Amino acid sequence: MRVDNTLMTPSFTRTLKLKVRSEAYGWLNAAAVEVNQVFNFCNEASWLAATRTDLKRKWLSGFDLCHLTSGAARYFERIGADTIQRICVEYAQKRVAAKRRKLRWRVSRGARRSLGWIPLKAASLKRRGKALRFCGKTFRVFETHRLEGVKWKQGCFAQDAVGDWWLCLPVEYTPEPSVAPEEYVGIDLGLKETAVASEGERLESGRFYRGLEAKIAQAQRCGHRRQAKRLHRKAARRRADALHKFSRRMVNQYQYIAVGDVSSCRLVKTRMAKSVLDAGWGMLKRMLQYKGEYAGRSVAIVSERNTTRACSFCGALTGPTGKDMLVVRRWDCSECAAEHDRDENAARNILYVGLRSRASVCGNELLHEALPVERDTPVLARYGWGVGYETT
Ligand SMILES: [Zn+2]
């Protein structure tokens, strides 16, 4: 079941994220305050226009807001007309996307300060040798070589919780679609291991926070808030790194990828919350989806109902079930006596559900059935499934 992707070679945008050198932080912090003022003006103007009682009542578009703010640049020391227009357009888009009548105010000072954000147009960021120039200020960034030969579109300067500034530039990127060496894989997301593939690859749940907890607690006790935030960022980066590596391996190796639709929202309320949040299932799914899209793979998210209980060999619901059975890692099917690793079995079932639902014409109506087994499915033969039929 190869996907023919010779017909389309779409181009994607990926975002380059470059750290700004700290000498510009003062300027950026001050410019961010000006951005907040424009943003809050948009918020208020939009609200006032929408709550008028006469016939002029309307929701302001980005264009309307640009019109209202024209000429405002001369009242600001740092940001220019380009940035103001970008703020207006982004404000209008964000408000519509959030489906709210009003967005939260951007706060410039105090403990609830918004993280700095300065949008820019492509033309207002220029190269000056190895440095960059924006609004009359010269910036230097780390890893300048990544900008070589790159044509950027509008981007932004963004601040993270630690206080560091990053230059984010979406750039066009044309991937070369290829066909993966292997055909199918199913991935089961779990807690003991973040992800287990039907072919046996595992992503250990790294306990990215667990290792740093003591240090974070100590930093907080001593009142070192910045240090604590730095450690949080470290944990987040470790996790992202592990997920990137795993998803890259999967996408490079397999053409069709099925992932369980396990949602963290429900489990977060239980006592497993810490492990759930640490696991990063949502992030892994997103990575698989976009990397798969870039590489011309098909990635499906399928219902994982019954995938742990069903035997991937004979389809009987003989596996462990319920919260108390989470400790059961290996089990034997009482119907066909097949030995199963809990997660690999689930991953195989997920792949199977994915393949079944893909073949169906009417959508995903097969997702909620108990897993039926067909002996003539080529995948089954490939995995040695259905062999149980001969013995029973
Ligand atoms: Zn069985």
What does this structure look like?
This protein is of the alpha+beta class. Helices cover 37% and strands 18% of the residues. It has helices at 25-50, 62-68, 81-98, 213-221, 225-253, 264-267, 273-279, 281-295, 342-359, 378-383, 387-391, and strands at 12-19, 117-120, 125-128, 131-134, 137-139, 155-159, 165-173, 182-189, 193-197, 202-204, 254-260, 298-302, 330-332, 339-341. It has a five-stranded mixed β-sheet with strand order 10-9-8-11-12. The longest helix is centred in the middle third of the chain and has 29 residues, at 225-253. The model is unreliable at 1-6 and 360-392 (pLDDT under 50). Bound molecules: zinc ion (ZN). Zinc ion binds at residues 311, 313-314, 316, 318, 333, 335-336, 338, 388.
Question: Could you list some keywords that capture this structure?
Answer:
392 residues; alpha+beta; five-stranded mixed beta sheet; four-stranded antiparallel beta sheet; disordered N terminus; binds zinc ion
What's the alpha carbon Rg, rounded to whole Å? Answer: 26 Å
Indicate the overall shape: elongated
Gap between N and C termini: 30 Å
Low-confidence region ranges: 1-6, 360-392
Mean pLDDT: 82
- Going across the major beta sheet, what is the strand order? 10-9-8-11-12
Oligomer type: single chain
- Give the biggest sheet: 5 strands, mixed
> What is the helical fraction, as a range of percent?
25-40%
**DSSP E strands, number:** 14
Q: Which small compounds were modeled alongside the protein?
A: zinc ion
Indicate the structural class: alpha+beta
Strand content: 15-25%
H/I helix tally: 11
Q: Encode the helix/strand succession as letters.
A: EHHHEEEEEEEEEHHEHHHEEEHHH
